[in-house]
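Lab manual, section 2.4: Encoding a predicted structure.

Procedure: take the sequence of the chain (234 residues), apply the prediction step described in section 2.3, and record the output as structure tokens. A sample record is shown.
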Amino acid sequence: MLRKFRKIVFLTGAGISAESGLATFRDTNGLWNNYDAEVVASLHGFQANPSLVHQFYNELRKQMFAAQPNSAHLALTHLQQHSHADIQIITQNIDTLHEKALSQNVWHIHGQINQLRCINCGKITETWEPWAENHRCCSCFGELRPNIVFFGEEIFFSPKIEQLLNEADLFVAIGTSGTIPPASTFVCDVRQHSGLTIALNLEKPANYRDFDIVINGQISKTLPRFIEKLLIYQ
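Recorded output:
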């Protein structure tokens, strides 16, 4: 079913970064095991205890700063560099492993670990340093929060994401559980416009029936092989 494609959209989830040593949030050894997710990943939790929320994301920032892209991240960069198609990467991951792999056109719909946002003026501050609640925005002295999508908040770049999905003739979901909306519904958006849909995951995602093709296995192995086959047509 592979052929020459004009616009390719990849959706990446925690599974692509797990092989770089980053724990997922909900697994047995997940990042939320020692924290209450409703506290560290909600606006209410941040307002009630900003010190705890900053502590959580400071620890996470340190882990993600040290992490390095694996062969799956590098394979996506390789495809972008050698394909004539327009290739966009929508990621649920807040790490910057795609950027470390030198990928382009990366859309962080859940935010980035190395960014903070002023709750007053909206200015974005980029840093890998630890942050404390008494640090303030350099523009308006407003309080800074992690530039992360908390529970109940809308994803970033919604209009752009809708455009990309409407135009995609190939959609590939990588390392996603298929359980977290709205990303779990992206495949259906593409199918409405007759795009080919493929899922690569260690196990079948929860929404596997929505895909034309499902490839199970270790992402760092299955994705580079898939991309080499895809490049034959590009």
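Check your result against the sample. The chain has two domains: 1-22+69-110+155-234, 23-66+113-148.
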